[in-house]
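Appendix B, Record 12. Input sequence as logged:
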Amino acid sequence: MNKKYLSFPLLIIAIILGVAIFKDFNFNTLTFKNLWLDIVYIIVFIVSLFLLFKKKKAK
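Logged structural output:
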C-alpha cells in the first residue's frame, strides 16, 4: 500500500496564492493590477503545485 499524503503547508500556500492571483486579475481588460508581483505569484504557485503533486520515488 503506497498512499500519498498531501503536504498541509504547501496546500495552504497554493490556496492563498491562487486566491491572490484571482483577485488581482481584471476580467474586463484581461490584465493584472501589479504585473511583476503577479508573475512572482504565478511562478511560486506553479512550483508549489508541482511539489504538492509530484510522485515520490521508490527506494
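Strands lie at 25-26, 31-32.
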